[in-house]
């Protein structure tokens, strides 16, 4: 479902005399449906960079990133938008709040975007918000004024609303309490059971050990060792 071949990344620092930073070289990675792979490695090894490249936020210097058959490294913006709508989800700790949209619709929106009828989408959203312990009195309000933890849980509900075939998880359990952490781990397990291919960064080692099938140490793709 996710195939990375010979992928390299450099950053050119235009405000620092055009210095070129080589971060990733000749990275290879393959994730099958129903599999969850953890990215590990020391701080600065390139975990976030790799995730951002898979999501199409950072451009690759060379190589291929196939997600459901689409090469993200070469795809047109329009194709990437479509991939993100239909195939590739991203669950991070942070909600980018859309002003004035009620929480229920923030969570239902990814389903509406793929044509799910409004009541069905809201029903799924209600189920997720209830599981993630967002009080019902908040569902009709915009999450703009919610606490950090509430916004994080709204974001997780939104990330799991549509059954994406591929999912990127960026510290999805960070700073959650025990009960909500458990809910998120179950959501990940359910996504695996329905065949989602997932790549995640988890500093929570117990969470990683429980839901991930394999670990890939990103430092193995560091340029110094790639030769
Ligand atoms: N936008 C950018 N411009 C320039 N350099 C960058 C950029 N993003 C990342 N880097 C560099 O790439 C390297 C890898 O960073 P990255 O954030 O991917 O590491 P990480 O493994 O996710 O680290 P952490 O665990 O600390 O989050 C670092 O040396 C960083 O300085």
UniProtKB/TrEMBL annotation:
<feature type="domain" description="ABC transporter">
    <location>
        <begin position="2"/>
        <end position="226"/>
    </location>
</feature>
<dbReference type="GO" id="GO:0016829">
    <property type="term" value="F:lyase activity"/>
</dbReference>
<protein>
    <submittedName>
        <fullName>Phosphonate C-P lyase system protein PhnL</fullName>
    </submittedName>
</protein>
<keyword id="KW-0547">Nucleotide-binding</keyword>
<dbReference type="GO" id="GO:0005524">
    <property type="term" value="F:ATP binding"/>
</dbReference>
<dbReference type="InterPro" id="IPR003439">
    <property type="entry name" value="ABC_transporter-like_ATP-bd"/>
</dbReference>
<dbReference type="InterPro" id="IPR027417">
    <property type="entry name" value="P-loop_NTPase"/>
</dbReference>
<dbReference type="Pfam" id="PF00005">
    <property type="entry name" value="ABC_tran"/>
</dbReference>
<comment type="similarity">
    <text>Belongs to the ABC transporter superfamily.</text>
</comment>
<dbReference type="InterPro" id="IPR003593">
    <property type="entry name" value="AAA+_ATPase"/>
</dbReference>
<dbReference type="GO" id="GO:0016887">
    <property type="term" value="F:ATP hydrolysis activity"/>
</dbReference>
<dbReference type="InterPro" id="IPR017871">
    <property type="entry name" value="ABC_transporter-like_CS"/>
</dbReference>
<dbReference type="InterPro" id="IPR012701">
    <property type="entry name" value="CP_lyase_PhnL"/>
</dbReference>
<keyword id="KW-0067">ATP-binding</keyword>
<keyword id="KW-0456">Lyase</keyword>
């Amino acid at each position: 479902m996710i195939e990375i071949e010979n992928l390299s990344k450099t950053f050119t620092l235009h405000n620092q005399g055009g210095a070129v930073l080589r971060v990733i070289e000749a990275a290879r990675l393959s994730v099958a449906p129903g599999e969850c792979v953890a990215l590990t490695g020391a701080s600065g090894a390139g975990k976030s960079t790799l995730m951002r490249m898979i999501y199409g936020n950072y451009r690759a210097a060379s190589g291929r990133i196939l997600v459901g058959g689409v090469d993200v490294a070469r795809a047109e913006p329009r194709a990437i938008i479509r991939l993100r709508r239909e195939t590739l989800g991203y669950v991070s700790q942070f909600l980018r709040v859309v002003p004035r949209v009620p929480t229920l619709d923030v969570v239902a929106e990814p389903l509406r975007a793929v044509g799910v009828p409004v009541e069905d989408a809201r029903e799924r959203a209600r189920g997720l918000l209830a599981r993630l312990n967002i009080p019902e009195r908040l569902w009709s309000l915009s999450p703009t004024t919610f606490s950090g933890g509430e916004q994080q849980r709204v974001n997780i509900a939104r990330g799991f609303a549509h059954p994406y075939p591929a999912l990127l998880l960026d510290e999805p359990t960070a700073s959650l309490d025990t009960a909500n952490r458990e809910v998120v781990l179950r959501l990940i397990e359910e996504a695996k059971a329905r065949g989602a291919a997932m790549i995640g960064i988890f500093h929570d080692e117990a969470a990683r050990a429980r839901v991930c099938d394999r670990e890939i140490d990103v430092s193995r793709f560091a340029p110094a060792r790639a030769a």
